[in-house]
Design a protein that fits this description.
Layout: H1 2-26, H2 48-51, E1 69-97, E2 102-105, E3 108-111, E4 120-152, E5 158-168, E6 171-181, E7 191-193, E8 198-207, H3 209-214, H4 218-226
Parallel strand pairs: 1-7
Antiparallel strand pairs: 1-4, 2-3, 4-5, 5-6, 6-8
Amino acid sequence: MTVNLLKTEAIAMAGGIALLLSTLIATDASAQNSSLVGMGAQRRPLTLAEQSWTHRLMPEPEPIQKNDLVTVLVDYKTQVASEGEIDRKKKADGTLTLQDWILLKGWWAVPDPQTLGDPTVSGKMDNKLKAEATLEARDTMKLSIACRVADIRPNGNLILEGHRTMRNNTEQWDISLTGEVRTEDISVDNTIDSEAIAELNVFKRESGHVRDGYRRGWFLKWLDVIQPF
């Protein structure tokens, strides 16, 4: 008796589950408009601001005005390699013989018999030049400098200008930068790479004992200009 009752309850429970599943399948999916499993044409678009508990909207950046500061990240690298070779040879032989000449006797010019023979001039020239040159140069400059917006073009481009002076005892470094950039190229953290700057002009000058150790004197500069050798 008890076993039959348990079987009857089990059968009834299974029938109820089957009826519930069939009802869910037959139900219109439009009731799940706010669910990711709903059909895209039937539900409204989902946004991260509405669905996330931790999402925060970023404030709109304020427009850049004159005298605002922008940090420029300078990463400049160049590499130049050049080789040259010249080998030149010149050789010339020449002989000059004077076969006829004149003599001046009084007011008259008469032929010279050249009893001592014909005057002869001979010469030889041998010129050789061989030169080899190799040039390999590498320049690297990496720094960051805060620049001020000096002007704003009618199209919205910004004119940047920045200066920096660093001194360590007797050593001094002066750095200047100018250029033109687009407003949209400036990142949200108010920085811009030097590669995005048009008409970029970076000037770096050093002074002190280190600079004096490798700089050229005026005489060497003069020799490099005229190149006498």
